[in-house]
Design a protein that fits this description.
With about 500 residues, the chain is an alpha+beta fold. The protein is about 30% helix and about 15% strand. It has helices spanning about 30-40, 60-65, 70-75, 120-135, 165, 175-185, 200-210, 240-255, 275, 285-295, 325-335, 340-350, 385-390, 395-410, 410-415; strands spanning about 5, 20-25, 50, 55, 80, 95-100, 105, 115, 140-145, 190-195, 220, 260-265, 300, 420, 430-435, 440-445, 450-455, 460-465, 475-480, 485-490. The radius of gyration is 23 Å and the shape is globular. The protein binds 1-O-alpha-D-glucopyranosyl-D-fructose. 1-O-alpha-D-glucopyranosyl-D-fructose binds next to loops.
């Protein structure tokens, strides 16, 4: 999955773009990219770009000209004499004061990421131009970063000081998406789009992805990844609320009736799922496969984030100097100011920091990523968790993912079937059925280190895939720790 590769000062790992037409030298040159695109093309692989249109880096030429007072470019952003009380998602105020202008500009993220003013037709035209530039280079897809924040409804103070309701899923969202769709990717039938949605709703996502609306193909939402937030606060530690997780899956799976879900556990913003929802020690392989099954059997399009397919875990850093992520470092200071102990802060960062997912890919038992010192420490467990070992073991997590992908291609009931929740209140099991014409699947997943059971009629079903080898199939089905079992029947 994601990461942007455009020219950037890398204050936020590339989500602060200086120039949308150039590749950052840390990733190579335009020639390298052209070669990659053409080699991929030959192998029938299309490249998808991660692109950030809600904001630019403050080093972008537009913002620099705005700072010089050029009205044309000030109108590309939101400059105001009086700030609102909104909070930045990375901590502190969402407004930064510029002394030379005696004005504030809006930044929903870091202060080096200034929000673009989509109200301005010139901005929309620039963004369409960028999309078409890359489409002409044969880029076959786009992941639009926090795209549901582009329509700001009103600049007024929020009673609870956050501001979200004034800029999330705003009134002009559908209009803006339709416009860029019509003028760029919508003209082609082989380009795929996914919108990353911050604090969104099922209703909005249905609207964005209803094929008749010509906006986006599918959406990522994060509700299932907030079930370990105490009082909805990310920077806390709490065992995940399993009932809540199941409710959210069931609601989104059933609710996206007109649209389409992007399915995922991991991305560059989330701690590793195996450390969070599985068991990254005793049941490392088993629980990695269980989580994979849970997601890959759902209705939607699954995304895999680098390292997930070999069961990479959280980094468990112990020193703030090991962190690189701007959000983690900001919150380290915020939590310290709130009086939390160093130990508690580290416990929180170990559970929640985005850097848990940002350490280098573990290729072999020496690491194998680069001869140079990487930007962030490699997880020491590369000695036992790495690609090479996975490739040498037919029972590995990697081959299990491969099998899941093949099954989706083979079985319409996986790619097209409907979704029916079962065992909704079971304390350990998340289970559902899928149906398509005369085919049926039952998917059963144990999220805990316990032996348990369910009573279910599985007559005439056979095992399609499981993370355990031997089974006794009967209607009082015994389920082992972190077991996943997918049963298939056709009539
Ligand atoms: O992230 C959007 C976002 O709202 C959050 O998930 C955020 O990363 C954070 O974890 C909140 O606690 C996107 C990108 O994926 C992220 O990497 C960027 O930092 C962010 O937008 C700004 O561009």
């Amino acid at each position: 999955m994601d990461n942007t590769i455009f020219l950037s000062p890398q204050n936020d790992n590339g989500y602060d773009i200086t120039d949308y037409y150039h590749i950052d030298p840390i990733y190579g040159t335009m020639d390298d990219l052209d070669e990659l695109i053409s080699e991929a093309h030959k192998r029938n692989i299309g490249l998808m770009f991660d692109i950030v249109f809600n904001h630019t880096s403050t080093t972008h030429a537009w913002f620099q000209r705005a700072l010089k007072g050029e009205q044309k470019y000030k109108d590309y952003y939101f400059f105001r004499k009086k700030p609102t009380n909104w909070e930045s998602k990375f901590g502190g105020s969402a407004w930064e004061y510029v002394e030379e202008l005696d004005e504030y500009y809006l930044h929903l993220f870091d202060k080096t990421q200034a929000d673009l003013n989509w109200e301005n037709p010139n901005v929309r035209e620039e963004l369409v131009k960028i999309l078409n530039f890359w489409i002409d280079k044969d880029i076959k897809g786009f992941r639009f970063d926090v795209i549901n924040l582009i329509s700001k409804d009103a600049f007024v103070d929020d009673n609870n000081g956050v501001g979200k309701k004034f800029y999330t899923d705003g009134k002009k969202m559908n209009q803006y998406l339709r416009e860029i769709n019509q003028k760029s990717f919508g003209k082609y039938d082989d380009i795929i789009t996914v919108g990353e949605m911050s604090s969104t709703t099922i209703e909005s996502c249905n609207n964005y992805t209803n094929p008749q609306h010509h906006e986006l193909n599918m959406t990522f939402n994060f509700h299932h990844l907030k079930v370990d937030y105490e009082n909805q606060e990310k920077w806390t530690t709490m065992p995940f609320n399993f009932q809540e997780l199941k409710n959210i899956f069931n609601q989104w799976q059933l609710g996206m009736k007109d649209g389409w879900n992007a399915l995922f556990w991991n991305c560059h913003d989330q701690p590793r799922s195996i450390s969070r929802f599985g068991n990254d020690t005793k049941y490392h392989d088993i629980s990695a496969k269980m989580l994979a099954t849970t997601m890959h059997m759902q209705r939607g399009t699954p995304y895999i984030y680098q390292g997930e397919e070999i069961g990479m875990t959280n980094n468990y850093f112990t020193d703030i100097h090991q962190y690189r992520d701007v959000e983690s470092i900001n919150y380290y200071h915020i939590l310290k100011n709130q009086g939390l102990s160093e130990d508690k802060i580290h416990e929180i960062l170990q559970a929640k920091s985005r850097d848990n997912a940002r350490s280098p890919m573990q290729w072999n038992n020496n690491g194998g990523f680069s001869k140079n010192t990487p930007w962030i420490q490699m997880n020491p467990n590369h000695t036992t968790i790495n690609v090479e070992d996975n490739l040498n073991n037919t029972n590995s997590i990697f081959y299990y993912y491969q099998k899941l992908i093949n099954l989706r291609k083979q079985y319409k009931v996986i790619s097209e079937g409907n979704y029916i929740p079962i065992e909704k209140d079971h304390p350990y099991i998340y289970a559902y059925k899928r149906q398509y014409n005369n085919e049926e699947l039952i998917i059963i997943n144990n999220f805990y280190d316990v032996d348990t059971s369910i009573d279910i009629n599985i007559q005439d079903y056979e095992i399609l895939i499981s993370n355990y080898n031997q089974h006794t199939l009967n209607n009082h089905l015994q389920i082992r720790p972190y077991e996943s079992i997918v049963l298939y029947k056709h009539s």
